[in-house]
Amino acid sequence: MPNHRPTILQIIPRLDTGGAERTTIEMTQAITAAGGRALVVTEGGRMVPQVTEAGGEVMTFNAGTKNPLSMLINARRLQKLVEREQVDLLHARSRAPAWTALWAARLSGRPFVTTYHGAYNEKGALKRTYNSVMARGDVVIANSHYTSRLIQSRYGTPESRIRVIHRGIDEESFDPSNVSPERVERLQRHWGIRPGQRVVLHAARLTGWKGQSVVIAAAARLAQQNFAGDDWVVILAGDAQGRTDYVRDLEQQIAASGLSQRVRLVGHVEDMPAAYVTAHVAVVASTEPEAFGRAAAEAEAMCCPVIATDIGATPETVRAEPVVSREEITGWLVPPGDPEALAQRLREALSLSEEERAAIGKRARDHVCRSFSLGAMQAATLQVYDSLLGTRLAEAWSAVSSSRTCVPSA
């Protein structure tokens, strides 16, 4: 066991938005609460202040470069940083910085951990090699069983080196009882939601494979049938991240479908718990596999039913027929890229009585509390560090976090 505070270095390109970025901050909080020292190496981003608030230290570094020569230079720079700061373990959460961290870890003789956060596309041998760094950790953390199977099938990584640790949902932040009516009313005003209107919420960054166009096409089918009059609206919440052409395409699709008063692009949403309280149903319309699908689990934690596509890891988070009985569902699964199937499930969700919706919502939160709590994710990741360092971070974390419980809403 080291004679100094165990020092964990996480490296990620930027801290702007996303699941890997949020998990970086959540683990920073756990490391420091357990008595360790948490360093985050990154280029920067809007979430940087959250690292320091969690007790971590940010070190600015050109972590996102994909230039091979720059990566080699960075590896030497990172090695020096590791030795200067007495880093005990490096944890990479993205491919480009993972190569830098791998070389720095090998040069300095430190353990190297990766978290395989995404179902990366592989087109050609070069891309496959580039992606493979995420399977080269001394321990490879897979954020779902789907991801674990993907790693094994692509790279032949032995199961003994893989740990399945589902992403954790902050059960305190994502608790409907902790969201004030004022927060909900503020969001409704911002979105232009009239009293009594039900919200269909699609929360994802604006990129083609997240399925915004499918949601618009499904909404068009409901509008053409005059389903429920003007009693519902669709909110497409997400950061465009510079994809202005895609945003323009969505706006044109909305206008061409006659949905300008029905479908709204609202940009990045800071208060997602209030967004899920505002929603009658949440939609995850991804047309490519999600490695985990945090949006579905967050919605469930907020007692919001979910309609999601039946690919990737989503079936691990959304309990749906025919795998469970109708009395056990937390939502519905539909084929990807199928607006008619999505429209059918939207009709069903929007037709639920308050009692039926509340029952689904309660089961949904219970499912998240059992399987996807933030504390469980943090403890399991600390156990990975302990297994490589001989430390007792997980035990220390357990002592300070034992008061946190995740319970279904009444």
Describe it.
By secondary structure, this protein is α/β, with parallel strands linked by helices. It contains 16 helices and 13 strands. The chain has a seven-stranded parallel sheet with strand order 3-2-1-4-5-6-7, sandwiched between helices. β4, α4 and β5 form a beta-alpha-beta unit.
SSE diagram, text form:
Layout lengths: L6 E5 L7 H15 L3 E6 L5 H6 L3 E4 L7 H17 L4 E4 L2 H14 L3 E5 L8 H7 L7 E4 L2 H11 L6 E3 L16 H11 L6 E6 L8 H13 L7 E6 L6 H13 L6 E5 L4 H7 E6 L9 H8 L4 E4 L4 H4 L13 E4 L4 H12 L3 H18 L2 H16 L3 H9 L9
Parallel strand pairs: 1-2, 1-4, 2-3, 4-5, 5-6, 6-7, 8-9, 8-11, 9-10, 11-12, 12-13
Low-confidence spans: none
Question: Averaged pLDDT, please?
Answer: 93
Please report which band the strand proportion falls in: under 5%, 5-15%, 15-25%, 25-35%, 35-45% or over 45%. Answer: 15-25%
Quickly give the structural class. alpha/beta
**N-to-C terminal Cα separation, in Å?**
45 Å
Radius of gyration: 22 Å
Instruction: Write down the secondary-structure element order.
Output: EHEHEHEHEHEHEHEHEHEHEHEHEHHHH
- Biggest sheet, open or closed, and with what strands and sense? 7 strands, parallel
- How many helix segments? 16
In spatial order, strands of the major sheet run 3-2-1-4-5-6-7
- The best one-word shape is globular
Please give the number of β-strands: 13
